[in-house]
Specification:
The protein has helices spanning 27-39, 57-72, 84-92, and strands spanning 5-10, 13-18, 44-48, 76-82, 101-103. It has 3 helices and 5 strands; from the N terminus they run E-E-H-E-H-E-H-E. The model has no long low-confidence stretch (mean pLDDT 91). The longest helix has 16 residues, at 57-72. The protein has 108 residues and is an alpha/beta fold.
């Protein structure tokens, strides 16, 4: 089942929205879905973390490998709607130096 991931296509942009936390338990299904998206030639992948409050090391690895795959095909990758805690996590790991990351408070 792909209930862990909602995928929306908006022109050249593909929005990937996890429906919950990015943890090791859902990583295998998500990895397959992300890989298929990259193979189909995503010009721009946006990961929407609006419904995600926790990410473990496996989830982080998943995001990084998705970023690397999209970048390798010349595409763009970004993360939107990250919670304050996730923003801190991403910044502490310096992920924002690799791709754009924005938080929920910027929706105002």
């Amino acid at each position: 089942t792909m209930s862990e991931l909602e995928i929306r296509h908006d022109g050249k942009t593909t929005v990937v929205a996890p429906t919950g936390n990015l943890l090791a338990s859902v990583a295998p299904q998500m990895r397959i879905a992300m890989r298929d998206l990259v193979r189909s030639g995503v010009a721009e992948m946006v990961v929407d973390l609006d419904r995600t409050s926790m990410i473990d090391s496996t989830g982080l690895g998943l995001l990084l490998s998705a970023f690397n795959s999209v970048k390798a095909t010349g595409g763009a990758f970004s993360i939107i709607h990250a919670s304050g805690e996730l923003l801190e996590l991403f910044h502490s790991m310096r992920l924002h130096q690799h791709f754009p990351i924005s938080g929920r408070q910027e929706l105002a």
